[in-house]
Design goal:
single chain; 556 residues; alpha/beta; Alkaline Phosphatase, subunit A; Gyrase A, domain 2; 2 domains; ten-stranded mixed beta sheet; four-stranded antiparallel beta sheet; globular
């Protein structure tokens, strides 16, 4: 790539769930030649995710260069005002300017494809195709709106995502084939738009690594590679074929801009094995801190078991329309995402967990919660300290290993105007080997299965930089996902808002570039209007589709 002097093009390729734990062994086997070349001729390093490492807040932190406390997203869901219920988030809930909004204001041309939490598509100086949490292709998912018609005329129906739990363990090969078809089409669309549009920043995200690693980590890293059955070997070969497809697409995208820009490959989080789930509300119930209304919870559990049974049956059949009808019917029982919260006896509940992906606990605080009973001040602090101490003591009932590897008070890890929206306590269980599940349960621990997935997120994502303005063949450390946005702005010679929490990764720059283009800072970016439409954006039908999507990814 030719020297850009800070005014060249920047390409960002997102690998949702990309992890060196998977990539490095495949490079050693010679399976990923394009990624291998970029690492050899550029820089690499782990990219620290948000705490916890969750897709929604992680991508929002990338977009803004800020922590969740500053942009307001801590999960896929957030509180419904004055209720205990939760609603699914959207782009308008991000209360800080994003990388592309800053660049658009500077007159730069933008092309964004499939970044999660970008629905509804914002007006940019260029084009945008929204990503994860887009309700359906019947929604306006592109800016400008005419772009969707252009793409569908040239490439056929657009595919938003592949939801692995919609398939079932008997249809793994179909799942992988559908994922490859989706990714292959996404790559063609990206190359077409890259070559047919003007742009200064071009970004596309591929979601398949995350989906495969959630569902099929046990095939990527089986306990005994030597004794795989022929069927298991076939599935593993298809998985590797998928990674090779992504590598091939990356090679084509690099070739299309080589000599005229810089490239960043990044992921929102890493990945590792899932050893089990801890039913956190069961744990709180056993401590006497959470109480259910028995009539409501029994009815909920019966309905939930029946719905799970029906999903299990149809997920192993090629009856997609029937499955969608069943899922949507279940979702329409309520517009909120956490129906079990309606079953809690709030008059006798001190603490609760609301979301699987939040890995946090809320106290039932008076004045904040609709039916709060914990007094602010000393009572709140004393109760929070008690729960933290109990988390420190928490052990696996069979192995007796301590489960909590990190425990934080929200103010220990978040800063900014939205810290009070975070859970009161945030924790990681064995660095992600176990996940806290909020669903009501009669038992504490569940072993991995297709239902739970066999892999899950880790803090260490992927960062790769490449180009003539990037150093050659070095390893960096201490890079964070919030550092990517200010680094891209610096590469594009655009002033960096000084309220970004991230720093410019100056250590990746070639000497000639850094000498001519030191980071330039300006005052804080304007806070996004809090009156912007966000709550109530989705219709009942769209909310149902989104619940189906999140369940299909194992997040609800």
């Amino acid at each position: 790539m030719a020297k850009t002097g800070g005014n060249g093009k920047v390409v960002v390729i997102g690998l949702d769930g990309g992890s060196f734990a998977v990539i490095d062994p495949l490079i050693k086997e010679g399976k990923l030649p394009n990624i291998a070349r970029l690492i050899e001729e550029g820089v690499r390093g782990d990219l620290e995710s948000t705490v916890p490492p969750v897709t929604g807040p992680a991508w929002a932190s990338f977009m803004t260069g800020k922590s969740p406390g500053a942009h307001s997203l801590f999960d896929f869901v957030k509180r419904v005002p004055n209720e205990s219920a939760r609603q699914i988030v959207n782009y308008n809930h991000i209360k800080s300017k994003t990388l592309w909004s800053i660049l658009s204001e500077q007159g730069k041309k933008i092309g964004i494809i499939n970044v999660p939490i970008t629905y509804p598509p914002s007006e940019v100086s260029g084009f945008l195709i929204s990503g994860m949490l887009t309700p359906s292709i019947q929604s306006q998912y592109t800016y400008p709106a005419s772009l969707s018609q252009e793409l569908e005329a040239k490439f056929g129906q657009y595919v938003l995502d592949i939801w692995w739990q919609h398939y079932g363990p008997k249809r793994i090969k179909r799942f992988l084939q559908d994922l490859m078809d989706c990714t292959n089409k996404r790559g063609k669309i990206a190359l077409y738009l890259m070559e047919s549009r003007e742009w200064d920043l071009f970004m596309t995200v591929f979601i398949g690594m995350d989906r495969i690693q959630h569902a099929l980590w046990n095939f990527l890293f089986p306990l005994d590679l030597r004794n795989l059955s022929p069927k298991e070997e076939e599935i593993r070969d298809l998985i590797i074929e998928y990674y090779q497809l992504v590598d091939s697409i990356i090679g084509k995208l690099v070739a299309a801009v080589d000599g005229n820009g810089n490239l960043v490959i990044m992921s929102d989080h890493g990945f590792g094995p899932l050893n089990g789930k801890l039913y956190i509300n069961k744990w709180l119930e056993d401590l006497g801190l959470l109480t259910y209304d028995r009539t409501k919870i029994n009815r909920y559990r019966t309905t939930h078991r029946l719905a799970s049974l029906l999903r299990s049956i149809v997920s192993n059949m090629d009856l997609l329309r029937l499955r969608k009808m069943l899922m949507i019917a279940k979702a329409r029982e309520t517009r909120t995402t956490c129906g079990f919260l309606d079953c809690i006896d709030w008059s006798r509940t001190v603490a609760y967990a609301a979301s699987n992906t939040e890995q946090g606990i809320y106290l039932n605080l008076e004045g904040r919660e609709p039916y709060g009973i914990v007094k602010p001040g000393g009572d709140w602090e004393e109760t929070r300290d008690f729960i933290i101490e109990k988390l420190r003591e928490l052990k696996h009932p069979e192995t007796k290993e301590k489960l909590a590897s990190r425990i934080y008070k929200r103010e220990d890890i978040y800063s900014g105007p939205y810290v009070n929206d975070a859970p009161d306590i945030i924790f990681l269980l064995r660095e992600g080997q176990y996940l806290a599940d909020v669903q009501p349960s009669n038992y504490l621990i569940e072993r991995p299965s297709w239902k739970t997935g066999t892999g899950t997120h880790r803090m260490e994502g992927v960062f790769i930089g490449y180009g003539r303005d990037i150093r050659n063949g070095i390893h960096i450390s201490n890079a964070r996902i919030i550092d990517v946005a200010p680094t891209v702005l610096n590469l594009m010679n655009v002033p960096i808002p000084d309220d970004m929490d991230g720093r410019v990764l100056t250590e990746i720059f070639a000497v000639h570039f850094l000498k001519d283009n030191p980071p330039l800072y300006v005052g804080p970016s304007d806070q996004v209007d809090s009156d912007k439409e966000a709550d109530g954006l989705y219709s009942d039908s769209e909310s149902a589709h989104l619940k189906e999507q999140l369940k299909g990814l194992g997040y609800l």
